[in-house]
Predict the 3D structure of the following.
Amino acid sequence: MTTTRSAATEPATSEPITVPPFAVISGAQVQHALLERENQIVELVEATYRLHSAGESVNPPSCFLRFPDRPSCRIIALPASIGGQVRVDGLKWISSFPENVAAGIPRASAVLILNDHDTGYPFACLESSIISATRTAALAASAADWLSRGRRRPRRVGFFAVGLIARYIHTFLAATGWSFDEIGVHDLSADSATGFRGYLERLGTASRIAVHDRAEQLIRSGDLVVFATVAGQPHVSDLSWFAHNPLVLHVSLRDLAPEIVLASTNIVDDIEHCLKAGTSPHLAEQLTGNRDFLHGTLDDVMAGRVRVPAERPVVFSPFGLGVLDLAVGKYVYDEVVRSGELHVVDDYFHELLRYG
Ligand SMILES: NC(=O)c1ccc[n+]([C@@H]2O[C@H](COP(=O)([O-])OP(=O)(O)OC[C@H]3O[C@@H](n4cnc5c(N)ncnc54)[C@H](O)[C@@H]3O)[C@@H](O)[C@H]2O)c1
């Protein structure tokens, strides 16, 4: 492997078309490129999301690989293409193996492939669990901001399950100006709850930390509730727990029974994506036979087309869009190129002469 600048970031205009060099970007490089850039990343993710909503992306349905012998596991392929100034295509390939956590390694692992706009050649492979958590947390922080406009800004956040995604969402909320009187924590695993509490204490948070054994306590005590479980089926069905009309970031997508969905204002990132794969909104659609319970997308709210009433719970269900991974991945790639630390794999593409 050598370290070099890449041709893939040079303007494409009058350059002859050539095979780009192929680079590998490690998790350490990804993390370094994203460190303390939360506000910039929220802007990037919001801009990419708006581009997507305006139809300036290609983002086919995610493809789920599931296994009869390992029903709790899956690997998802998210292909995507961004036009405009960014001009990059690619694929996120992300595994979820929940039992990993008991063995002391993260549930999710991922790669992101970036493909060159002009030749289609893949030009980079990036460690992508960090990119995925980052884009998820950035959109969640953005949604918390947009969806709490016009209602009392939440002062008590409750994290319903506290793995890696909850930690990233907390980081993005804190970095984008949120502060809380109380941070509630609930997890089926006492180790996870203790670990998250320890993380908050090491940060020196000024918020009171409350660990709740019961799900009901967590929900009732939060005006912002973040679901980040690995539940495959709804496990929260008591509407009275939501009587205080919280803002719910339903990041794990499958926690709420359809009855809760139907009694709430529902905002999604993308309607066609979100009403698939057994998400709670998908179950609500199957139950009612229609989509009347959907109030709109986050883009509708950002553009002022949809108003979020204060007198019902608000549930934001983000399916997660490959274009956002692609945008954050390209940002990381450009940062690594700029730093002169791009590790190119020499001779990666090797059969280049048509007739030998
Ligand atoms: N919507 C998106 O764009 C998006 C993106 C990334 C991840 N996610 C989802 O976020 C979720 C969390 O991911 P992670 O990497 O933090 O997982 P993780 O394995 O690190 O943590 C999950 C935690 O959930 C807890 N948990 C599981 N079921 C629970 C329940 N019923 N009640 C309370 N706690 C429970 C576990 O004990 C664990 O601590 C996953 O479902 C993942 O698919 C969504």
The CA atoms of residues 158 and 225 lie 5 Å apart.
